[in-house]
Amino acid sequence: MTISWFQSSSVMSSTNSSSHHPAEFSASGHNSSTKSHPKLSIAEAVKTLHPSSKNRHAVEAEQTRFSQLLLEHGEKHLQDWAVIAYSSPAKEQDMKHNSTAAPNHNNSNNKRPTKSLGVIHHHAAQPQQPPPKRRSHKTSKSKTNNNNSNTNNTSTVDAEVYPSTAMNKIEGRLHLCSRSIVFEPTDPSRGIVRCPFRKMDQAPTEYPPVSDAVSLGERFESMCIEFRAQRHVVMKEHAAPAPFTTVPAPVEFRFTFLHSSPQPFCDLCQKLFTLWSQQQNSASQHEVPELDELLQPMLERPFDSSHLVDVRERPLTSTSLQASLLTPLQRKSGCVTVTTERIYFQPAAGALTPTDTKAMHWRVPKVVATACRYNGLRDCALELYFRDATSVLLAFERKRDREQLLRFLPRHAWSFTDREFLYQVVKAWHAKQISNYDYLLALNTAAGRSFHDLSRYPVFPWVIKDFESAKLDWNDIDKTFRDLSKPVGALNPERLQYFKTRLEGMQDMDDSFLYGTHYSTPGYVLYFLVRSMPEQMLCLQNGKFDAPDRMFYSMNHCFNCVQSNHADVKELLPEFYNPDDYDFLINARGLQLGATQTGERVDDVMLPPWAKSARDFLRKSRKALESEHCTKMLPKWIDLIFGSKSRGDAAKEADNLFHSCCYLGDLDLAAMKTEHDRFQAELQATEFGLVPDQLFVTEHPSQVDPSNPAASTLDEAALESVINPAFGTSRSLAGSRDYDSASGTKAEAWELLDPPSDPSIPNQTSSGALVRPEHNDLHSRPNAMTTATTTFLQQQNAGSNNPFGGSSSRPHNLPLSGSGDTGDGGPAGRGAFSSFGAADNGSKSIQATPSYDSATSVSPRHHHPAESIQTPTEWDMKLLERRQIHGDAVSGCELVLAGEEQTQLLATTSLDGGLMAHTVSLAPQATEDPTRRGFTGTLSRFSYMSMSRGQAATSPQSKLTEFRRHSARDPLACLVLTSDGAGGQVAFAGGHDDVVLAYGINSSCAVASVYSHRDAVTGLDLIPRMSTSNSALWLEKATHVMVSGSWDATVKVWSVTVAKGETVSVNREPLAELYDADSSIVCVSAVSVQHLEPNGGAVVAAGCADGSFCVWNLHGDGVTTVIHNEPAKRGSGPCSVLKWSTEGGKINLFTGFSTGKVASLTLEGGVLRKESALSFGVAVNALVYSEGILLVGCADGGLRLIPVSNGTKFDGKPSLWPAVNNRNSPGISSINVTYAQVEGRMMCICCTGAEDGSVALFELKRVVRTSGFLSS
C-alpha cells in the first residue's frame, strides 16, 4: 500500500523533536500501544477475519429505524426536523383541480429504479397490497351513514388498514431526501412513511397561507407545511422487516415544525423537487450536478471537537478527511479525524444547519490489521480490523486521504493487502499451520473481498455435492465431493457445451464470454443471507422479497439449479463453513417469505437428510472443507478464483471466462470519456459481479505431503515466483491519477501544452500566452507533496564500458530534485542561460509573427518589451519523452547525462515503493530533417501541433528504456544518486520504513541499508569528499557525508564509503544528530564549504512541516552550530523544498513553501541574509537552480522558470509551461536538470516527475529576440 506523505507531514506541525509514532502514545503521553499489544502471529491475524453475525456489522446496531436501506438506489439524506404529523384522505375535487395545474410525473418511465441486476432478471413490480380486513355490515353501514355528506368528495380508504392516512398529532422526525420526504414516527409500532417526489403533484408549501391564517389557525398550529401524495409507502411497521406497503389512495399530509421555521425546509424541498424533475427529463440515472452543490456544505463540515472522548486527546490530522462509512448496501457520508488515542468518524448531517449526530470512534491501539479496499471501482477505501474480530470499512474521496490515515496507525498492525502478508499466509497454509477455512478467508481478504461490500463478498467453493443421502460416505470421493478443478459452470458437461456453442457465435463480437452471470454478486449473497439480512434484501428488491420459488429454501434444490440453470453459476459463502453462525439457515425472525407453487411454506432452509440440524450441517460442511481430498484439490480451485486461470487466455482454456465487465478496474474507469459511461460501467460491474484481484501467476503449490515431503517442498524462491509481482507493490487494479474521486469524473483535459507565459497577468488573450482551463480542479483537490532531496553530480572515471559510467565533460554543482505541497502564485524575474543558451551551427532565425496565438505558437513574447533596455530573452521547451512509469507520485528523479555516449541514466523513486532506472537516448532520429533542426521551429511546427491533437510530442523512437526495477514494501520518499568512481551508480533512497537503502544500479540489488530514524525518512543529500585530509567530519576512507531528515524531527549526518563495484558501507553510528528543528522534517539539503573552512566543513538546511526551516554549520572539528532558525508563521504551511547553490563562490539558499512563496538567501559571515522573494498562485513542490535560472515545479502541474541575476536576485518576469507531465495537469513532485553533449551541441535536459507517477523529459533552450526575429 502507498502512503501520501505530504498530508501526513504537513499536519505534524505540533510534533517536537522527541516525538515518536503517534499511535504509540495515549493522550496522557504514555506508551499504550506497542508494549501492551505486540504484533499478532499470522494465525492470530487470520482469526480476526472470521465472520460473525453478532459482531460483523456492529456499526448497524447504532442505527435508528430510518436508514438508507429505506431509500432508492443512490438517494441521499439531507436534513431532518422534529415535527408533529397529521394526515387525511385527499378530497377528490381538490385532486382533480391540482391534477390539471400540476405537471404529471406519474408516467410509466418514473418507476423506482431497480437496485440490483445480479441474479434478479425480472423488473420488480409494485408489491401486492394486503386485502382490507373484513368488517361487519353494521359497522360499514354506520360509517357510511355518518359520512354520507362526503361520499362524493373524499376518496375511499380504510384508516384501520392504512393508519398512515389518518394520523393525528403523531410525533416524529421528518427526513428530507434527494428524491422523497420520509416521516419516522417516534412510536416504533407505527410504520415509517415515505412520499416519493414522483407521486407528489407539487413541492410542499407552508400552511396556512397568509390570507387564510385567521380562518384556519384554530384548526392547525402555525409553522406547518402541507403536500399531497397520490401514493405513499409504509415501511417497518412494528419495527419488523416486512415487505413495504403501498397505500393506493391520495392523501394530504401536514407537518407542524416544533423548533424551527418551515421556510428553509420548503425552500430546499422546492430545489430538490426541481432537480428531480430535471433528472427525469434528462433520462439520467445519476444525480444532477446541482445536487452536489447543495450537499457540499454538509460534506465539508469539519470535525466537531466536542465529540472527543478525552479532552487530553490531540488531533493528528490538521483537517478532517472526507470519507464514507460503508456497510452492505449503505453509505454514510462524513469525515474522519485521527487523534493520539482514537479514530473518529463524524456522520455528515444537515445540509442547512448542523444536526446533533454522535460520532463513532475506535481506539487506535485496538487496530490489529488493515486492508486496502475498493470504493466501487476506485482504489481509495480502507478496512480496519480490531482485536475483538470486528471491522469497519471507510471509503475516502481520494487515495491520498486513505494513506494519511494509514500513517497514524500502529506499526504492529498487519496489512492484509500487502505482499508480506500473502507470503506469510501461503507459507503457513503450506506448512499446515492454518486451516483451509482460514486460508480461504485470508486469500479473499488479500484479493479485495470484504464482508461489508456485497459486490466483493468473500467467495467459498461448493465442496459437497451429495444432498440426498441419509449419510455421507467420506470414502466415496466421486459421489460426495464436487470436482474443484472445474468452475461451477463446467460441472455439467451438457450445460458447458451450451455455453461453448454460444461463445462460438460471439467470435465477431467485441465482448465474448462463456458465462453471462458471475459466481458472486450482491443478489447471490442476499439470496443466501435473506434470513439474516432481510432489510438488505428488501432494499435490493424494491420493498419486497423475491418470489418464493426463487428464494433459498432447500440445499438440494439450490445445488440442482447450480448444475442445470444456464443463469446460475454461483459459489458459496464463508457462512456455509462456520458452525457458530447458522442464523442464515433458520427463520428466527419469523419473516413472511411466502409459499412455493407446490404450496410449501418457505421458512427454515430444508437441509439434506444427513444433517441433524443447521449447526450439524455446517459442522459436516466444515469437515468436508478440511478433508484430505479437499486439501489436495483446493489449489486447483484457487487457480480458478485467485490465480493464473482467473483471467485472460488461461481462463478461457479452463472454461472460466466471464463477461468483460467482471474484470473492470479503476484504470478502465478513468479511461472512459463521459460521466455517464463511468456511472453505467461502475453500476454494472458492482451489481453483476467482479473477479477478485489476481494473487498468483503460476499454479498454486500443494500442501506438504507427509508421505513425500521432498516432493512438496516450497522454498522462498519458488514462493516468490508464484505470487503476482504486481501484488503488494501496486494494486493489481491500480488507480489512475487522472480520475478525480471527489467529483466522480475524470479531470478536464488540458488539450494543449501552452507556451511559457507571464503568470502575473490574470487573463491573457491570444496575444499573450496562457489560457487557463475553465474547471477549477487545480485549486480544489489536495496535492501530494514529495520531499526527495538531492545531491551534486560527481561523474568520475571515464572510459568504463558501462553505459552509466563516464565522466562529465563539465563540472556541475546541481542539486537534482526537490518537492513540496499545496499553496498559491504571483510575479517573478528574468535572467539568461549562461552556456547552454549558445546557438549551435544547426540553428537558424525565423520571422516572428506580430501576435502569438496559443494555438499556433509556443514561443511567447513578453507583453512589455520596452520596459527593459536589455535584449529580450525567452525560453522554449522541446518535449523528448512523456511516460507513466509508476503507480503513485514520483518522489525523486536523478539524471546522469554526461559525455558523448548519448545513452545515459534516469533513476526515479515513487510513493508506490518502486525504484526504477531507465536508459536515456538523446541521439536524433536518422530521418530527421536537418533543415528543421532549429529548436523553435521544431517545437512550434511538430511538437505543439501534435499536442493540440492530444498526443505526446515524442519521437516514434522512445527515449526511455527500462533498465532496472526494485520494489520496496513501503513508499520511497526521497532519492539521491552518486557514482562509485568506476562506472557504477548507487541510488540512496529513504522510505517510510525508517530505513535508508543503497541500491546498485548495475548490480541490480540492494548493497547496503541503515536503520536511520524512528520515523519515515523524508529527505536525503550527499556531499562528496573534496579533500584528502581526515577530520571529525571526514573519517578515513569515507567518500561521502550523507544527511538524512525524518518525520521524527531530527536530522542525522552519516559517514559513507562508496567504492568500486558499487560497494557501499555506512557507518552505523551517525557523525551528528541535530535536534533543533521545530517540527517534522520535510526536506533537507547540504553543501560543502571546504573553500571557506580548510578542515572540511559543511552547511545543512532542513525544511519543516510547520513552515520553519533551520540551518546548521558542521565544522570539521566536530563542532555543530545553528546558523539560522527561521520560525514558522501562522498559516504558512510546510517548507516543502530547499536547495543550496555555490555558484560564483557564494553560498546561496533557495526555499519553496506550500503557500506558493519562493525565496532566495545568502550565507555570508555566518549570517543568512534574505535577498529576493516572490509568490505564485499555487503551492511549490520542487525546485532546482542552475546557471542563472531557477526552475520551480508546482502543484498545478505547471513548470515556472525564474531568471536569477547575481546568484540570488529574481529579475524580471517568470515563464510558465502548464501541464508539463500530463494534459490533466498532475502536480509536479520532483525535478532535475543537467547537461549533455550531443553531436557537438550542449543540451540542457530537464526531467520532471509528477503526482500521477509520470515523468517528462524535455530540452530547455534560450531564444533571443532581435528586431522582430527569434534566434536560438
TrEMBL record:
Gene3D superfamilies: BEACH domain (1.10.1540.10), Pleckstrin-homology domain (PH domain)/Phosphotyrosine-binding domain (PTB) (2.30.29.30), YVTN repeat-like/Quinoprotein amine dehydrogenase (2.130.10.10). Residues 312-410 form the BEACH-type PH domain. Residues 414-703 form the BEACH domain. It holds the Pfam family PH_BEACH. Residues 132-141 have a biased composition (Basic residues). SMART domains: Beach (SM01026), WD40 (SM00320). Residues 1-38, 92-156, 751-782, 796-868 are annotated as: Disordered. CDD domains: Beach. Residues 820-829 have a biased composition (Gly residues). Residues 98-111, 796-811, 842-859 have a biased composition (Polar residues). SUPFAM superfamilies: BEACH domain, PH domain-like, WD40 repeat-like. It comes from the Eukaryota. This is Lipopolysaccharide-responsive and beige-like anchor protein.
